[in-house]
Amino acid sequence: MVPAPAAVPGPALDRLSGLLTRFRVHAHLFHAGPLCGVTHFDAVPGRGFVHVLRRGHMVLRHQGDSGVPQRIEVDEPTLLFYPRPLEHHFHNTPVEGSDFVCATLDFEGGLQHPLVRALPPLLVLPLSAVQGLEQTLALLFAETERVRCGQRLLADRLFDVLLVQLLRWLLDHPQQGSAAPGLLLGLSDARIARTLVAVHENPGDAWTLASMAQQAGMSRSAFAPHFKALVGTTPADYLARWRVALACKMLRDGRAVKFVSDALGYASASSLSRVFTQETGLSPRAWLQSQPA
């Protein structure tokens, strides 16, 4: 059984900025207004979707092997969040229609993006249940009602704001998203979050179990099982996975393996290559060659 995250008093902690500055998400408005009949959305590598149903009624359909319900009926203002590529169809009554604003979400690193790996494939959240989105949605709807200078640029930025507010809300209400062990559940725990944020912001430090437990204010014997129960992996494995995700990003940006290994705290390029191969199944050079241009 997954333990409930502990709300331990302590200094304010920014649990998202270190993550999102290293692995950005770019939102792009592509639709505003009614959708009638059947609308199909393809699964594109590295791309998610966020749809906001402003009014109307719709049926959402997925393939049988998608890992989400094949049929979902929505009849109130709702936010639909697909953090990873997943084919889906909207079925709207042609007479009534439904009023939407929709954006694509391009995650840097694709499936290597920590949030893509941490979130469930679909979140369906009635707007009435998610506190704090009202002002952003009001601005977003106002921007999409008529064409004005800079409309698309401003709408994209408002979707960025909406995503951060949604993630913030999920961290404060982990049971509303997914109770499965993972990054969000770990960040929802005040003690484990202190360790995760420190690792995210300082990946090249000489981290040990003792130093990570110290960040959490816990003993090593208490910290290790609590971390694994919430995050779903050992502290050492999480550190390795985070460093490899950063290494992938740096390699795509044109950094040499030696530079990456130094920046991430490895004693040598071969040490990084060994961990990288364990995580991805490929050497850094082979992995880079396998990536699309």
Major β-sheet, in short?
A: 5 strands, antiparallel
Q: Please tell me how large the radius of gyration is.
A: 21 Å
Report how far the terminal alpha carbons are from each other: 43 Å
User: How many domains in all?
Assistant: 2
Instruction: Name the poorly predicted regions.
Output: none
**Proportion of strand residues:** 15-25%
| Percentage of residues in helical conformation | 40-55%
Structural class: alpha+beta
- CATH architecture title of the largest domain: Sandwich
Which overall shape is indicated by the principal axes computed on the Cα atoms? globular
Can you describe this structure?
By secondary structure, the chain is an alpha+beta fold. The protein folds into two domains: 161 residues, Jelly Rolls; 102 residues, Homeodomain-like (Arc Repressor Mutant, subunit A). 44% of the residues lie in helices and 20% in strands. It contains 13 helices and nine strands. The chain has a five-stranded antiparallel beta sheet with strand order 1-8-3-6-9, with helices on one face. A four-stranded antiparallel beta sheet has the order 2-7-4-5, with no helix packed on it. The mean pLDDT is 87.
Topology:
Blueprint: H1 17-22, E1 25-35, E2 37-41, E3 47-56, E4 58-61, E5 71-74, E6 78-82, E7 88-92, E8 98-107, H2 114-118, E9 123-126, H3 134-145, H4 151-172, H5 174-177, H6 183-187, H7 190-201, H8 209-216, H9 220-231, H10 235-252, H11 257-263, H12 269-280, H13 284-290
Antiparallel strand pairs: 1-8, 2-7, 3-6, 3-8, 4-5, 4-7, 6-9
